[in-house]
Design a protein that fits this description.
single chain, 385 residues, Aspartate Aminotransferase, domain 2, Aspartate Aminotransferase, domain 1, 7-stranded mixed β-sheet, 5-stranded mixed β-sheet, 14% strand, globular, binds pyridoxal-5'-phosphate
Length: 385
Amino acid sequence: MKLRETARFSTICIHAGQVPDPSTGAIITPIYQTSTYVQEALGQHKGYEYARTQNPTRAALEANIAAIEGGKAAFAFASGMAAEGAVMTLLQSGDHVVVTDNTYGGTYRLFERVLRRYQLDFTYVDSSKTGDIASAIRPETKLLFLETPTNPTLRLTDLAAACEVAHRRNVVVAVDNTFASPYVQRPIDFGADLVIHSTTKFLNGHSDSVGGVVVATRDDHIEWLRFIQNAEGAIIGPMDAWLVLRGTKTLPIRMERHNANAMALAEFLASHPKVAQVHYPGLAAHPQHALAKKQMRGFGGLISFALGSLERARTLLNNVRLMALAESLGGVETLISHPATMTHASVPPERRQQIGITDDLVRVSVGIEDVDDLKEDLANALSAV
Ligand SMILES: *Cc1c(COP(=O)(O)O)cnc(C)c1O
Protein backbone atom coordinates (compact mmCIF):
# COMPACT_ATOMS: atom_id res chain seq x y z
CA MET A 1 0.00 0.00 0.00
CA LYS A 2 2.24 2.73 -1.29
CA LEU A 3 0.57 5.75 -2.85
CA ARG A 4 1.73 6.80 -6.28
CA GLU A 5 2.40 10.46 -7.02
CA THR A 6 -0.59 10.38 -9.35
CA ALA A 7 -3.10 9.06 -6.78
CA ARG A 8 -6.44 10.83 -7.02
CA PHE A 9 -8.48 12.54 -4.33
CA SER A 10 -10.61 9.64 -3.02
CA THR A 11 -7.61 7.32 -2.97
CA ILE A 12 -5.58 9.91 -1.07
CA CYS A 13 -8.39 10.31 1.49
CA ILE A 14 -8.40 6.57 2.23
CA HIS A 15 -4.69 5.75 2.09
CA ALA A 16 -2.46 8.81 2.58
CA GLY A 17 -0.44 8.74 5.79
CA GLN A 18 -1.36 5.17 6.63
CA VAL A 19 0.62 1.96 6.34
CA PRO A 20 -0.25 -1.40 7.93
CA ASP A 21 0.80 -1.34 11.59
CA PRO A 22 4.45 -2.44 11.65
CA SER A 23 4.06 -4.73 14.68
CA THR A 24 0.89 -6.63 13.63
CA GLY A 25 -0.07 -5.73 10.08
CA ALA A 26 -3.36 -4.20 11.28
CA ILE A 27 -4.74 -2.34 8.27
CA ILE A 28 -6.09 0.46 10.44
CA THR A 29 -3.62 2.68 12.28
CA PRO A 30 -4.12 1.82 15.97
CA ILE A 31 -5.02 4.31 18.68
CA TYR A 32 -1.62 4.66 20.34
CA GLN A 33 -2.98 5.53 23.76
CA THR A 34 0.36 6.02 25.48
CA SER A 35 2.19 8.87 27.17
CA THR A 36 5.74 7.66 26.63
CA TYR A 37 7.92 5.20 24.68
CA VAL A 38 10.53 2.82 26.06
CA GLN A 39 14.06 3.44 24.82
CA GLU A 40 16.28 0.46 24.00
CA ALA A 41 19.37 2.09 25.40
CA LEU A 42 20.42 5.56 26.32
CA GLY A 43 19.84 7.75 23.26
CA GLN A 44 18.47 4.79 21.23
CA HIS A 45 14.80 4.98 20.32
CA LYS A 46 12.40 4.59 17.36
CA GLY A 47 11.84 8.32 16.87
CA TYR A 48 9.20 8.46 19.60
CA GLU A 49 10.15 9.80 23.03
CA TYR A 50 7.19 11.54 24.65
CA ALA A 51 3.58 11.71 23.43
CA ARG A 52 3.12 15.49 23.46
CA THR A 53 5.94 15.64 20.93
CA GLN A 54 5.17 12.54 18.83
CA ASN A 55 2.27 10.12 18.56
CA PRO A 56 1.87 7.67 15.66
CA THR A 57 -1.93 8.02 15.42
CA ARG A 58 -1.61 11.80 15.31
CA ALA A 59 1.25 11.55 12.80
CA ALA A 60 -0.91 9.40 10.49
CA LEU A 61 -3.74 11.94 10.66
CA GLU A 62 -1.38 14.83 9.98
CA ALA A 63 0.14 13.13 6.92
CA ASN A 64 -3.35 12.23 5.71
CA ILE A 65 -4.75 15.77 5.93
CA ALA A 66 -1.57 17.35 4.49
CA ALA A 67 -2.05 15.18 1.40
CA ILE A 68 -5.79 15.85 1.22
CA GLU A 69 -5.23 19.62 1.21
CA GLY A 70 -2.21 19.43 -1.11
CA GLY A 71 0.15 20.88 1.53
CA LYS A 72 3.62 19.85 2.68
CA ALA A 73 2.90 19.10 6.35
CA ALA A 74 0.05 19.33 8.84
CA PHE A 75 -0.21 19.74 12.60
CA ALA A 76 -3.23 18.55 14.55
CA PHE A 77 -4.55 20.34 17.61
CA ALA A 78 -7.12 19.87 20.37
CA SER A 79 -9.67 22.08 18.58
CA GLY A 80 -10.09 24.36 15.62
CA MET A 81 -9.47 27.32 17.93
CA ALA A 82 -6.20 25.79 19.20
CA ALA A 83 -5.13 25.40 15.55
CA GLU A 84 -5.92 29.07 14.89
CA GLY A 85 -4.05 30.06 18.05
CA ALA A 86 -0.97 28.20 16.81
CA VAL A 87 -1.09 29.98 13.43
CA MET A 88 -1.28 33.34 15.16
CA THR A 89 1.99 32.63 17.01
CA LEU A 90 3.71 33.11 13.64
CA LEU A 91 3.11 36.83 14.32
CA GLN A 92 4.85 39.26 16.67
CA SER A 93 3.56 42.28 18.55
CA GLY A 94 3.11 45.25 16.24
CA ASP A 95 2.01 43.06 13.32
CA HIS A 96 -1.25 43.77 11.52
CA VAL A 97 -3.74 41.26 10.13
CA VAL A 98 -6.46 41.74 7.51
CA VAL A 99 -9.44 39.49 8.24
CA THR A 100 -12.67 38.49 6.46
CA ASP A 101 -15.30 40.61 8.26
CA ASN A 102 -17.67 37.75 8.87
CA THR A 103 -15.42 35.04 10.26
CA TYR A 104 -16.47 32.34 12.67
CA GLY A 105 -17.42 34.02 15.97
CA GLY A 106 -14.67 32.25 17.91
CA THR A 107 -12.06 33.65 15.52
CA TYR A 108 -13.31 37.20 16.12
CA ARG A 109 -13.24 36.58 19.88
CA LEU A 110 -9.68 35.20 19.80
CA PHE A 111 -8.43 38.15 17.77
CA GLU A 112 -10.28 40.92 19.63
CA ARG A 113 -10.33 39.67 23.23
CA VAL A 114 -7.06 37.76 23.43
CA LEU A 115 -4.56 38.75 20.74
CA ARG A 116 -5.11 42.51 20.94
CA ARG A 117 -3.61 42.18 24.45
CA TYR A 118 -0.38 41.16 22.73
CA GLN A 119 -0.33 44.24 20.46
CA LEU A 120 -1.59 42.54 17.34
CA ASP A 121 -3.88 44.73 15.23
CA PHE A 122 -6.78 43.57 13.07
CA THR A 123 -8.76 45.16 10.24
CA TYR A 124 -11.97 43.43 9.15
CA VAL A 125 -12.90 43.78 5.49
CA ASP A 126 -15.53 42.47 3.11
CA SER A 127 -13.08 40.09 1.49
CA SER A 128 -15.55 39.32 -1.31
CA LYS A 129 -14.20 42.64 -2.67
CA THR A 130 -10.54 42.05 -3.56
CA GLY A 131 -10.03 45.83 -3.76
CA ASP A 132 -11.05 46.18 -0.08
CA ILE A 133 -8.36 43.65 0.88
CA ALA A 134 -5.74 45.54 -1.12
CA SER A 135 -6.56 48.91 0.45
CA ALA A 136 -6.47 47.49 4.01
CA ILE A 137 -2.90 46.18 3.63
CA ARG A 138 -0.34 48.37 5.44
CA PRO A 139 3.46 48.14 5.71
CA GLU A 140 3.09 46.19 8.98
CA THR A 141 0.48 43.76 7.58
CA LYS A 142 1.86 40.23 7.89
CA LEU A 143 -1.21 38.01 7.49
CA LEU A 144 -4.42 37.85 5.46
CA PHE A 145 -6.90 35.61 7.28
CA LEU A 146 -9.74 34.46 5.04
CA GLU A 147 -12.86 32.40 5.48
CA THR A 148 -14.91 31.40 2.44
CA PRO A 149 -17.80 30.70 2.23
CA THR A 150 -18.75 32.78 5.26
CA ASN A 151 -21.09 31.69 7.99
CA PRO A 152 -24.09 31.95 7.68
CA THR A 153 -24.60 34.24 4.67
CA LEU A 154 -22.33 32.18 2.36
CA ARG A 155 -20.46 35.05 0.79
CA LEU A 156 -17.34 34.02 -1.14
CA THR A 157 -13.81 35.35 -1.43
CA ASP A 158 -11.99 34.99 -4.74
CA LEU A 159 -9.07 32.95 -3.42
CA ALA A 160 -6.76 33.30 -6.43
CA ALA A 161 -7.24 37.08 -6.60
CA ALA A 162 -6.87 37.55 -2.83
CA CYS A 163 -3.66 35.48 -2.70
CA GLU A 164 -2.19 37.47 -5.57
CA VAL A 165 -2.93 40.81 -3.90
CA ALA A 166 -1.47 39.58 -0.59
CA HIS A 167 1.64 37.96 -2.02
CA ARG A 168 2.50 41.05 -4.06
CA ARG A 169 2.85 42.82 -0.67
CA ASN A 170 4.62 39.89 1.04
CA VAL A 171 1.57 39.07 3.15
CA VAL A 172 1.04 35.43 4.17
CA VAL A 173 -2.42 33.99 3.41
CA ALA A 174 -4.23 31.66 5.82
CA VAL A 175 -7.65 30.24 4.92
CA ASP A 176 -10.11 28.73 7.37
CA ASN A 177 -11.47 25.98 5.08
CA THR A 178 -13.80 24.40 7.66
CA PHE A 179 -17.05 25.42 5.96
CA ALA A 180 -16.18 24.10 2.51
CA SER A 181 -14.05 21.03 3.35
CA PRO A 182 -11.11 20.10 1.09
CA TYR A 183 -13.39 18.06 -1.19
CA VAL A 184 -15.24 21.23 -2.14
CA GLN A 185 -12.29 23.63 -2.17
CA ARG A 186 -8.50 23.41 -1.83
CA PRO A 187 -7.13 26.87 -1.00
CA ILE A 188 -3.48 25.86 -1.57
CA ASP A 189 -4.33 25.23 -5.24
CA PHE A 190 -5.21 28.95 -5.44
CA GLY A 191 -2.05 30.14 -3.67
CA ALA A 192 -2.85 29.98 0.07
CA ASP A 193 0.16 29.43 2.37
CA LEU A 194 -1.75 27.95 5.32
CA VAL A 195 -5.06 26.13 5.64
CA ILE A 196 -6.89 25.73 8.93
CA HIS A 197 -9.71 23.35 9.80
CA SER A 198 -11.89 22.64 12.70
CA THR A 199 -11.80 18.85 12.18
CA THR A 200 -14.88 18.83 14.42
CA LYS A 201 -16.95 19.55 11.31
CA PHE A 202 -16.80 17.89 7.84
CA LEU A 203 -13.38 16.21 8.20
CA ASN A 204 -14.53 14.09 11.12
CA GLY A 205 -18.09 14.28 9.85
CA HIS A 206 -19.80 12.24 12.55
CA SER A 207 -20.32 14.82 15.31
CA ASP A 208 -18.30 12.79 17.81
CA SER A 209 -14.96 14.56 18.17
CA VAL A 210 -13.45 18.04 18.64
CA GLY A 211 -10.16 18.85 16.94
CA GLY A 212 -8.28 21.15 14.60
CA VAL A 213 -5.51 21.09 12.06
CA VAL A 214 -3.14 23.48 10.29
CA VAL A 215 -1.77 22.57 6.86
CA ALA A 216 1.39 24.39 5.82
CA THR A 217 3.35 24.77 2.60
CA ARG A 218 6.42 26.81 3.58
CA ASP A 219 9.43 25.27 5.38
CA ASP A 220 9.78 28.20 7.82
CA HIS A 221 6.10 27.85 8.81
CA ILE A 222 6.44 24.08 9.16
CA GLU A 223 9.46 24.41 11.42
CA TRP A 224 7.70 26.95 13.65
CA LEU A 225 4.40 25.06 13.81
CA ARG A 226 6.19 21.84 14.79
CA PHE A 227 7.98 23.78 17.51
CA ILE A 228 4.86 25.54 18.82
CA GLN A 229 2.74 22.36 18.76
CA ASN A 230 5.22 20.86 21.22
CA ALA A 231 6.02 24.07 23.12
CA GLU A 232 2.38 25.05 23.81
CA GLY A 233 1.17 21.45 23.76
CA ALA A 234 -2.43 21.92 22.53
CA ILE A 235 -2.31 18.56 20.73
CA ILE A 236 -5.20 16.40 19.53
CA GLY A 237 -5.51 13.20 21.56
CA PRO A 238 -4.96 9.79 19.93
CA MET A 239 -8.62 8.74 20.14
CA ASP A 240 -9.76 11.93 18.40
CA ALA A 241 -6.99 11.65 15.81
CA TRP A 242 -8.21 8.12 15.06
CA LEU A 243 -11.85 9.25 14.75
CA VAL A 244 -10.92 11.99 12.27
CA LEU A 245 -8.76 9.53 10.32
CA ARG A 246 -11.81 7.27 10.07
CA GLY A 247 -13.85 10.28 8.96
CA THR A 248 -11.57 11.40 6.14
CA LYS A 249 -11.82 7.99 4.44
CA THR A 250 -15.44 8.73 3.50
CA LEU A 251 -15.04 12.49 2.99
CA PRO A 252 -15.58 12.39 -0.80
CA ILE A 253 -18.77 10.33 -0.75
CA ARG A 254 -20.14 12.23 2.23
CA MET A 255 -19.45 15.57 0.54
CA GLU A 256 -21.05 14.45 -2.72
CA ARG A 257 -24.22 13.73 -0.78
CA HIS A 258 -23.97 16.91 1.35
CA ASN A 259 -23.60 18.89 -1.89
CA ALA A 260 -26.49 17.16 -3.64
CA ASN A 261 -28.88 17.36 -0.66
CA ALA A 262 -28.05 21.03 -0.01
CA MET A 263 -28.58 21.90 -3.67
CA ALA A 264 -31.97 20.15 -3.68
CA LEU A 265 -33.09 21.84 -0.45
CA ALA A 266 -31.87 25.26 -1.65
CA GLU A 267 -33.96 24.89 -4.83
CA PHE A 268 -36.95 23.70 -2.84
CA LEU A 269 -36.69 26.68 -0.46
CA ALA A 270 -36.08 29.19 -3.27
CA SER A 271 -39.36 28.19 -4.88
CA HIS A 272 -41.35 28.17 -1.62
CA PRO A 273 -43.77 31.11 -1.24
CA LYS A 274 -43.09 31.50 2.50
CA VAL A 275 -39.33 31.89 2.10
CA ALA A 276 -38.10 35.46 1.52
CA GLN A 277 -34.52 34.73 0.47
CA VAL A 278 -32.16 31.76 0.17
CA HIS A 279 -28.36 31.98 0.42
CA TYR A 280 -26.59 29.13 -1.39
CA PRO A 281 -23.66 29.50 -3.81
CA GLY A 282 -25.13 26.78 -6.04
CA LEU A 283 -28.18 28.88 -6.95
CA ALA A 284 -27.86 30.89 -10.16
CA ALA A 285 -29.32 33.83 -8.18
CA HIS A 286 -26.33 33.85 -5.76
CA PRO A 287 -24.31 36.99 -6.60
CA GLN A 288 -21.07 34.98 -6.77
CA HIS A 289 -22.39 31.86 -8.49
CA ALA A 290 -19.78 32.16 -11.27
CA LEU A 291 -16.93 32.36 -8.73
CA ALA A 292 -18.40 29.38 -6.85
CA LYS A 293 -18.31 27.32 -10.05
CA LYS A 294 -14.69 28.37 -10.60
CA GLN A 295 -13.21 27.61 -7.18
CA MET A 296 -15.55 25.06 -5.58
CA ARG A 297 -16.43 21.44 -6.46
CA GLY A 298 -20.12 21.40 -5.70
CA PHE A 299 -21.33 24.16 -3.41
CA GLY A 300 -21.07 22.74 0.09
CA GLY A 301 -23.49 21.47 2.71
CA LEU A 302 -24.64 24.75 4.26
CA ILE A 303 -27.59 26.89 3.33
CA SER A 304 -29.30 29.79 5.04
CA PHE A 305 -32.63 31.40 4.35
CA ALA A 306 -34.72 34.32 5.54
CA LEU A 307 -38.33 33.94 6.60
CA GLY A 308 -39.39 37.58 7.03
CA SER A 309 -39.52 37.82 10.83
CA LEU A 310 -38.11 36.36 14.04
CA GLU A 311 -41.55 34.92 14.85
CA ARG A 312 -41.74 33.04 11.57
CA ALA A 313 -38.19 31.72 12.04
CA ARG A 314 -39.08 30.58 15.56
CA THR A 315 -42.18 28.77 14.32
CA LEU A 316 -40.16 26.93 11.69
CA LEU A 317 -37.43 25.95 14.17
CA ASN A 318 -40.01 24.69 16.67
CA ASN A 319 -41.79 22.60 14.06
CA VAL A 320 -39.02 20.62 12.39
CA ARG A 321 -38.86 17.02 13.59
CA LEU A 322 -36.06 15.29 11.73
CA MET A 323 -33.66 18.25 11.69
CA ALA A 324 -32.04 18.77 15.08
CA LEU A 325 -31.95 22.25 16.60
CA ALA A 326 -28.24 22.59 17.39
CA GLU A 327 -25.07 24.57 16.77
CA SER A 328 -22.13 23.05 14.85
CA LEU A 329 -22.15 21.66 11.32
CA GLY A 330 -20.63 19.12 8.98
CA GLY A 331 -22.02 15.93 10.50
CA VAL A 332 -24.00 13.24 8.69
CA GLU A 333 -27.16 14.37 10.47
CA THR A 334 -28.95 17.58 9.50
CA LEU A 335 -28.72 20.42 12.02
CA ILE A 336 -30.82 23.57 11.95
CA SER A 337 -30.02 26.74 13.86
CA HIS A 338 -30.85 30.40 14.41
CA PRO A 339 -27.58 32.34 13.95
CA ALA A 340 -28.75 35.62 15.56
CA THR A 341 -29.49 33.97 18.92
CA MET A 342 -27.21 30.92 18.76
CA THR A 343 -23.84 30.98 16.95
CA HIS A 344 -23.72 34.78 16.57
CA ALA A 345 -25.41 35.87 19.82
CA SER A 346 -22.16 37.48 21.03
CA VAL A 347 -21.94 39.70 17.92
CA PRO A 348 -23.47 43.16 18.64
CA PRO A 349 -26.87 43.66 16.91
CA GLU A 350 -25.68 46.56 14.67
CA ARG A 351 -22.77 44.47 13.45
CA ARG A 352 -25.07 41.51 12.86
CA GLN A 353 -27.24 43.74 10.65
CA GLN A 354 -24.17 44.97 8.75
CA ILE A 355 -23.05 41.46 7.87
CA GLY A 356 -26.53 40.24 7.01
CA ILE A 357 -27.31 38.11 10.06
CA THR A 358 -30.90 39.22 10.39
CA ASP A 359 -33.26 37.93 13.09
CA ASP A 360 -35.33 36.05 10.51
CA LEU A 361 -32.36 34.04 9.21
CA VAL A 362 -32.22 30.24 9.63
CA ARG A 363 -29.16 28.12 8.86
CA VAL A 364 -29.15 24.46 7.90
CA SER A 365 -26.15 22.15 7.92
CA VAL A 366 -27.58 19.67 5.47
CA GLY A 367 -26.80 16.06 6.37
CA ILE A 368 -26.73 12.96 4.23
CA GLU A 369 -30.17 11.56 5.08
CA ASP A 370 -32.63 10.81 2.26
CA VAL A 371 -33.33 14.20 0.75
CA ASP A 372 -37.07 13.52 0.46
CA ASP A 373 -37.31 13.11 4.22
CA LEU A 374 -35.50 16.43 4.68
CA LYS A 375 -37.81 18.17 2.19
CA GLU A 376 -40.87 16.72 3.89
CA ASP A 377 -39.62 17.92 7.27
CA LEU A 378 -39.12 21.48 5.97
CA ALA A 379 -42.42 21.46 4.08
CA ASN A 380 -44.30 20.41 7.22
CA ALA A 381 -42.59 23.01 9.37
CA LEU A 382 -43.17 25.72 6.74
CA SER A 383 -46.86 24.93 6.65
CA ALA A 384 -46.99 25.97 10.33
CA VAL A 385 -45.36 29.33 9.54
C1 LIG B 1 -16.17 25.36 14.46
C2 LIG B 1 -15.33 26.31 13.71
C3 LIG B 1 -14.10 26.77 14.25
C4 LIG B 1 -13.64 26.40 15.64
O1 LIG B 1 -13.40 25.06 15.75
P1 LIG B 1 -13.52 24.24 17.15
O2 LIG B 1 -13.15 22.88 16.75
O3 LIG B 1 -14.94 24.39 17.60
O4 LIG B 1 -12.57 24.90 18.08
C5 LIG B 1 -13.35 27.63 13.48
N1 LIG B 1 -13.75 28.02 12.25
C6 LIG B 1 -14.91 27.60 11.72
C7 LIG B 1 -15.31 28.08 10.36
C8 LIG B 1 -15.74 26.73 12.42
O5 LIG B 1 -16.91 26.35 11.89
